[in-house]
Predict the 3D structure of the following.
Amino acid sequence: MSFYSVIEKYRGFRFQDYFENVTEEMFLRSLRHAEEERCSEIDLLNFLSPQGDRHLEEMAVLSQKLTRRYFGRTVSLYRPIYLANYCSNGCVYCGFSSLNRIKRRQLTFEEIEEEAAEIAKSQVRHILMLTGEAPGKSDFTYLKTAAKILKKYFDSVSIEVYPLSLEQYSELKEIGVDGLTVYQETYDEAIYDKLHLYGPKKDYRFRLDTPERGAKAGLRVIGIGALFGLGDPMSDGFFSGMHAAYLLHHYPDTEVALSIPRIKKAPETFPITDIVSDSDFVKLLVSFRLFLPRVALNVSTRESADFRDRIVELGITKMSGGSKTDVGGYSGDDPSDEQFEISDERSVEEVAAMLKTKGLTPVYKDWWQLV
Amino acid sequence: MEKDELVLGGKVFTNRLFTGTGKFARNEDIAPMLEVSGSQIVTVALRRIDFKFPQENILNFIPKNVTLLPNTSGARNCAEAVKIARIAREAGCGRFIKIEIINDSKYLLPDNAETVKATEILAKEGFVVLPYMMPDFVSAKRLEEAGAAAIMPLGSPIGSNRGLLTRPFIEILIENTDLPVVVDAGIGRPSQAAEAMEAGAAACLVNTAISAADDPVRMGRAFSLAVEAGRTAFLAKLAEESKYAVASSPLTGFLRAKEV
C-alpha cells in the first residue's frame, strides 16, 4: 500500500471543473456531515470549492467548536533548532537550495549542546531539529548524535530532515526521537518534477512515502503538508487532507499533524503565480478541521504575529514560538543565513501571554520520553 | 439517611464527580472549579507535568486536599502505560493511576486487552488502578480478576459530548461486576451525568464538558449537582417504568370478560 494509490486514483481529475460546479446545496450537505463528524473526500472537496469562500464564517465557527471539543482550550508549543543548511538539492523556491550562494554552516556537537541549553531555558519541552538535505555533510550518524544530545534537554524530539529509510526511522525511535515532519511541497507530480531540478529530492515517490515509513517505524507524531503556492493550493489542500486521512486509517496509533506553510517570497528565478491569500489559508485550515476533527493543526513563525493571533482561535493546536531559522541563531555570534524570514519574532513568553489573553492555555510539555 | 460513601484504594470519597485538568482556558480556574463542585478526585496527564518548571507545573493548580489520579495518556501499549505509572509514583503523584491505553488516534478508543495486562502488573505493584475501557463484559471480568479498584467504561468517544451511547453495555457491567463503575468520556451535559448515576454508576468523570464551558467553575457545580441528584435517585429506587402504555380498554380485556 502507498498513498500513491490515491494520487493515481485522482489522476486526470479536473479539480477546477469540480470546484466550480459545487452548488450551495451540495456544500450545505457537506457542512451537515461535518457537524455529524462523518465527512468523506467529497465533503473535503466541497469545503475547498468557492462555496467555501462564501460560507467561510460558518466553517470557522464549526472548526472552533470541533477544536475545542477535542483539544479543549489549549495550544501546544514547540521550538525549532536548525543544525545545518548544507543542501544538495536544487529546489528552485528554497532559500537553502544549492542553487543559492548563501552562508552555510553545520553545528558541531559542542555547538548543538550550547544551542540546546539556550533553547531549553524557555519552558518549552518540545524541539524540532532541522537540516538541509546533504547526507554527505549531515549524515545519519550526525543526525543520531544530534538527537541524543537534544534528548538530554527536551522531553520530545522531532525531526525535519531529509527522507530516511524505515530502518533509519526505527533506529531514531530507539534512541528517543518521537516525531517526524516532512512536507511534500506539492502533490502535483508534474509541477514537482519541474521545481526539483536535481538531487535526491527529485524522487517524488520516495518523498511521498516518507510519512508512511515513519509511521511504520512507530514514530508517534507525523507532520505533513504541502508548501502552498507551488501548485494549485486547493488541490494540494485536498491531497494533504487525504494524506492525513490515509495515515490515520492505516496507522491508527499515529498522531497526524497538518501544516499550511505558504510560499511568500521566493528567489527571482521562481515567479509565484498562486499566492495563497489569508482567506485561502483560513479556508484550508478550517476545511482540514471539518474533515478530520482530531488532527493536529500546526502553524510556524513563517506567519505574522497578527495573523497567528487570529487563526489560533480557528483550529490551530500547535505553534512554534521564539524561533530562529538560521543555523546557530540562538547562542552563536556567527549564524548562517536564514531558510525563510521569520514573521513572528516574539519570544515564547510573549506568545504564551498572547494565548492567555485569547482564553487559551499554552502547553509547554505534552510528552514524556519513554526511551 | 445512610452515609453514601465511595471507597477506592482504602480512601473514602463523599463526592462522586471526578474531574479533569487538561483542557482549561486558564489553569487558574481549576482550583475554584474543584471547590464549588466539591470534586475530590482529579485526573491529570503525566505527559503534561513538568517538574523542571514549577511555576507552570499543572500540579501547582490542584489543591492538596484533592486526590490526584494521574493518567497514562499517550501510552499505546501495556509497557508504556506501566512505565508512565511508575514515573508518576516516583514523582510523588500517589498510588492512584488511571490506565489509558489508546492506539487509535482517530477515535481515541481504548485497547482493552493491553489495559488488562497493565492492570495486572500495576495492581500487583500496589497501585490503585482505575482502567479506562470499552464497556465490554468479558474485559470487565478480566480487569476485576487483575485487581482493578474500579472500571471506567466510556459513555461515548472522548470529547464527543454525545452522552451515554453505550448505556445498555454499561448497565451490564453495573449488574455483573462487584467493582465500582465510573462512567468516563463522552458525558457532555449534566443531565447525561444524572442519567448515568440513576442507572447505578458509582461515579462520573467529566473533563471537556466542564473545562471547555464558557464558565467552567459554574459548570463544575452543575455537574456536581447532577451527579448527586442521579445518585440520590438511584438510592431512592426509581418507580418502575412501564414500557407500554396501559390502554384504558385493554386489548386483552375480552379474555377477562369471558371469565366473568
